[in-house]
Amino acid sequence: RGDLKVVLVHDGRTVTLHDQTGSYEDDLKLTVDAAALGGVALAGAWTLTDSDHAAYDTGRLNAWSIEVVTP
């Protein structure tokens, strides 16, 4: 996890969800406060980009999902 950067793009807005923090554990699970999206409309396409910044190991993204919970 410490070498990963994860970015979510939606409706022209880019939000960095994870930026090379943590240690060398597997499986990154994130919860993002809706305030980070700054009032962006929820409908439409969402794009997740991940990048590994370590030259000595590799990994892969097996799956991702997004769940929007509204009150």
Describe the structure in your own words.
- Strands 2-1-3 form a 3-stranded antiparallel β-sheet, with no helix packed on it.
- Helices cover 0% and strands 30% of the residues.
- It is mainly beta and 71 residues long.
- Strand 1 (4-10) and strand 2 (13-19) form a beta hairpin.
- The helix/strand order is EEE
What's the end-to-end separation, in Å?
Answer: 31 Å
Gyration radius, in Å: 13 Å
Instruction: Tell how many strands the DSSP assignment holds.
Output: 3
Low-confidence stretches: none
Topology:
Blueprint: E1 4-10, E2 13-19, E3 46-52
Antiparallel strand pairs: 1-2, 1-3
Throw out a few tags for this protein.
3 strands, 71 residues, mainly beta
Give a brief description:
This protein is mostly beta strands and 71 residues long.
